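quick one, two chains, predict together pls
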Amino acid sequence: MTRRSLLAALASPLLAQPAPVRLTDVTARAGLGFRHNSGAFGAKYLPETMGPGCAFLDYDQDGWLDILLVNGSDWPGHKRTRSTPRLLRNNRDGTFRDVTREAGLDTELYGLGVTVGDFDNDGYPDLYITAVGQNRLFHNNGRGRFVDVTQSSGLGGRESFSTSALWFDYDRDGYLDLFVCNYVRWSPGQDVRCSLDGKLKSYCTPEAYRGATCWLFRNRRDGTFEDVTAGSGLFDPSSKSLGAALLDFDQDGWPDLFVANDTQPNKIYRNNRDGTFREMAVRQGVAFSEDGRVRAGMGVDAADFARTGYPGIAITNFDNEMMGLYERSGEAYTDRALPRGVGGPSRDRLGFGCLFGDLDLDGHLDLIVLNGHIDDTVRNVGRRTSHAQVPHLFHNDGPGGFRDIAPLAGPDFAAPKIGRGLALGDFDRDGDLDVLVTTNGGPAYLYRNDTGAGHQSIRFRLRGGPSNRDAIGAVLHLFDASGRQTAMVKSGSSYLSASDLALTFGLGRSPRAQRAVVYWPSGRQQEARDLAAGRSYLWIEGKAPEVLTSR
Amino acid sequence: MQSPTSRLVAGLAFTLLVISAYAFYSLRSVWRLRDTQTRIVDRNRQASTQLLRIQGELNTLGLTVREMLDEKPDYPLEAWQAPLRRVRENLDDALRREAELSAGMRAPQQSQYLAATLAEFWRAAAEAMEAARAGDRARALMLIRNSLQPGLASLHSVTARWLVDSNDEEARASEQVRALFSEIERNAYIFLALSLALIVLTSLGLIHSNRALFAQLGALAEQRSDLARQLIATQESTFRSISRDLHDEFGQILTALGALLRNARKHAPGSAFEEKTLEASTIVQRTLERIRSLSQSLQPVILEEQGLLAAVEWQLAGFERHTGIAVRYRGPREPVEVRASQAIHVFRILQESLNNVARHAQVGEVDVMLRVENARLILRVADQGTGLRENAPQGLGLAAMRERAGLIDGTLDIVSKGGGTVVTLSAPLALEEALVEP
């Protein structure tokens, strides 16, 4: 028996099952036409291999999700082309139009990540783009244009190597504050020579550089921000942070933070409800792998994938390290990646973007993971890994754990790529979640979710007031025949990317949900009953949820 | 004769016991190894991991302290309070876990020295933070340079020493595990050899006792065969003598009686006496015929005089006549000469088979075949009757048939199903003495 036929024989029971999720590559049809410029010219500067991120956002509030693709740029002295971030407006027919210039985003910067949030509660999402050098805050003026307010908002004058960022209202004053991850202290002049194969220069792992503290900026409610990093207890120059996720692990209604660090212990910051945080990663069991080693944390997401009511945590790591899949047991977290079926398949991949999302709308959160090595010379070292790698699509089988069905989700999705950014959102408004992917030095991909399992979803777009208008930090419990599902409105998660803030719940074949309960960041609790499936609801704080005429 | 079952069962039980004992011993050894490995190696590995973690935290602390001395800091000195507290918590956690894992492996003075050095370090750090908060940056920096940095150096040297010790301990543990492996391997071989020896001895004992048993059985079978042979011989000679007596004595008497009656009849012709004598004469004649027939069937003269084939044909004709069961007979194509000593047994087997057909088969016809095939004489009697009842006690007739078959070195197969019975005799052909003994 040849190896191929043996593999085919082994795979046949898997192939025999109908694919629960089907993702169709609609990149060309949608007209994304994007290629990431890492600026690489041969010197192999560390930031070149890190980006870019992407976002689903409805910047013009027309009810259709638009796309933002972050871009790098050429290095000073090696200028070849002009490259900027790209904003693509949804034409509502499956295609997008490039509106970068008219939206005022035609700005060159070495961008890495993006986070989307309405920091001034004016009803239009604003952008914070992280970069090597100066990060930028773009205010959405509501007339289709973004204005760079970095300096006037007090966020200017900072050179950094920032990665993921997220908006959240840590002090629950109704205005979004900003958390920014910084990776290492790096500049072209300090770039270190590393080699994977002992001959050619390769991109370094961060051990070669000193860490950099993450930042917390408090929203002063007047369009300006105050750096409260030191006073809040988040100051930590040893961290080399790449991913951040919002969660409420102690379920006290105050937003906590998880930070994935590369070759440094991960951090989990408990909100002390007084403007300060307490780091508890070691005590919570999430700082290290189960055998006590630091791993190369990249992307992260937190969600109640086991339907226990508590958020679990998924973290992508380097190859040979496996992903972390932390579940709450008692007072702390335990890494259950191996028994849950995530550890084995992820062992020989290097993961970046990762998100929980109920792609087949069966009521169980699946886990989608982008992979791709940091350096092309990895093929010379004979490890079972390559530069471009196949993504994972872990289908949540319920109590049975996760099963990687990426090869069954369609040939487009399963093609190897140097994956980085990952965002979820329903750009075609058919009720399920579509997938936006960026690759390092390559195209961005848009995958339309064509899963035809006959399952229905129910979607909530929450609007706060007195809570922050985006309702980031609100927790919604949805009860249907199958039990309770829990989700939090959160920005951040994944890697360098921002997903749509709406909450999409899969209901399987249930025609309706009996009950939905929202815990708003303001402390208010609201309940709605008898909600039909297949609908999108706008739930304004203090009012009853109303059906949106469109999704 | 003692039944062999108990001995076989005892042998099997003993073998199983030996195998179980071996399996138990192997399992116990594996458990012991696993426990030892978990206890010693895993504990050492975990302790080393914790030591590496402690070193990592001390490195972080070193970097932190160096950065606190930065000339142009982004954040004020007091901002380092949080990182310092975090390192302290992590360090304490790692030290506590390491202490649990390395319990008893280290002199208490070593742990006390580290605890004292650490306490002094944190006291100085708190003092430096206090000074920074009070705005006395110069004093804070002085404390960092003069207390924290030297304290860190001693902490580093202590943990480095511990790591070396832990490494030695790991090497010792590996050696211990290796020794345990060797011991278990040696014991396993000894145990295996012992088990094999015991199993071989048990098997030899069983083979020996079984051979004795089979020898006994063989002797018994021989005795039984002799007995049967004698019985049959006696029977045949008895038959022969009765037959001769019937033929010679009673035959003569009855012949004489018939002649007398014939004479007496002549003296009173046409009288009632003549009629009575004629009647008596007929009875005498019939009796004579019966006696001759009986004599023939006890010792068929035809067998001696005309051979087996003629005797068979005579017997079949008689059977048809007496029972009314039609016989379909197929004889050999060529005439066959069979030694008389063999012929009598073949004939008797045929007689007994036909008897069985007449008595049990409830059929209207029977197939008989006699032929020579590969120098073997084959006799087959087949009926389409009810067949032999299963589990029915085998009569003396069948046993005698088998014995007779045995006496002529032949085999007797009796196949009986619902659709009839087939008796097949196959015996090496013994030619007439005259032909084999020139």
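Residues 1-16 of chain A have pLDDT under 50 and may be disordered.
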